Amino acid sequence: MSVTRSGPLPSGDGDGAAYDVVVVGAGVVGSAIARALSRHPLRVALVEAANDVGDGTSKANTAILHTGFDAVPGTLEARLVREGHRLLSAYARETGIPVEPLGALLVAWDEEQRAALPRLAEKAARNGHRTTRLLSAAELRAREPHLGPGALAALDVPGESVICPWTTTLAYATQAVRSGVDLHLGCRVEAVRPGEPHHTLVTRRGVLRARHLVNACGLHADAFDALVGHEDFTVTPRRGQLLVFDTFARDLVRHILLPVPGPLGKGVLITPTVYGNVLLGPTAEDLDDKTATGTTAEGLAGLRERGGRILPALLDEEVTAVYAGLRAATGQEDYRITAHPELRYVTVGGIRSTGLTASLAIAEHVRGLLADCGLDPGPERPLAPLRVPNLGEAFARPYRDARLIARDPDFGAIVCHCERVTRGEIRSALASTIPPGGLDGLRRRTRARGGRCQGQYCGAEVRALFEEYGEGSR
Ligand SMILES: Cc1cc2nc3c(=O)[nH]c(=O)nc-3n(C[C@H](O)[C@H](O)[C@H](O)COP(=O)(O)OP(=O)(O)OC[C@H]3O[C@@H](n4cnc5c(N)ncnc54)[C@H](O)[C@@H]3O)c2cc1C
Prior knowledge:
With 474 residues, this protein is of the alpha/beta class. 29% of the residues lie in helices and 23% in strands.
């Protein structure tokens, strides 16, 4: 077990360390796959181009643990989202990942949308969700008193939840590393030479060898496929821009407010986050630049316009941040998960807008596909136990934990006052199994610098702690 971030990779017997499986891409999907494989006595490496796990699409989504009620029935995605919801809900309970089962309301704003609601209820039933219920305008308003005028009816979808996406990826990767996986960060795979018994992977940091290979490259899954000699699909980045409203907005909304879906996907929603903020978004814009994670004035103005109709009072609240994520669209309303047994290779592509939810089920599916590709995983053994630090407002935070503070007063010393993050949490994150490689990584582990001042007040102290206790100090 090791985490490396720079320097040459281990050289093995001279021509690169040899692994039974190399998983390329440490987003939520690749990390879940590495974790699933670490149940077995296999040599596994998780290899990531960025200098942290969860630094791609997995860090910038709407953080909903979907039930899959609106998936296309009969697709692999429908099955894995449903199964993923069950697995991740249980995993979150076991490890302490914050989840709030708020339920969703799919709100109809015109007659056409109202007419669509019973069809959506039927679709939900075909996807195994029989607890949806139609609400009248009056019932809807009683449940969501701040909705704008003109809401005609809604479909109530119990089980839709909000979750911490950052802790989820980190939990998978941490458990994988503690269970024996080597994590190599800052390690883009630039070329693959298929071979027998090992493929050779040429990376920025040297060479690795892999008997079996998993492509979990997200937006770059098509480019990685091409390195291995396949051109089965093209990924089109579909940008989703979002506005984050301050925690004062939290009382305005009780559920996840979904629109009736249109041709470009789930549409613009308003949802609380587990951190106590409110999100408005995302847009859906097909681009050709896989690095275009910036926001635009036009995109944000469009969101404000739509948000103002749904929840007018929201626009009076402060926006603390804006961000954008890129969905991996492939022109197919399903995932693109394919085994290539002749190459001992599995492509995990097209994990569109549901990958956080489905991650654990995708990992189990890929474990099966690797066996179809000839991998003998050996016996199963328990994973290293894990509890994650809580970042959720609905659960006890360290600054309120008198016993913890009595044991270590640093957990009572607040550094980031907007998000109430303590010196103890920052120190623990910096000493953790996968320490952050920078201040953004530290924010995803603690929330430090993520609040209304965006680090204006605490930034210098957080940086000083990073320099004192971070990897660079050792
Ligand atoms: C706006 C938006 C909203 C969303 N909302 C939700 C939601 O509410 N619920 C939900 O379940 N899902 C949601 N999703 C979808 C979810 O975020 C994604 O499906 C998921 O994060 C995909 O994870 P991934 O691991 O496949 O990709 P990524 O997180 O992008 O990880 C892929 C990794 O591969 C690495 N990589 C690529 N090429 C190489 C290479 N050659 N060598 C080494 N590393 C490489 C990248 O650096 C990256 O870190 C949303 C997505 C967006 C954009």
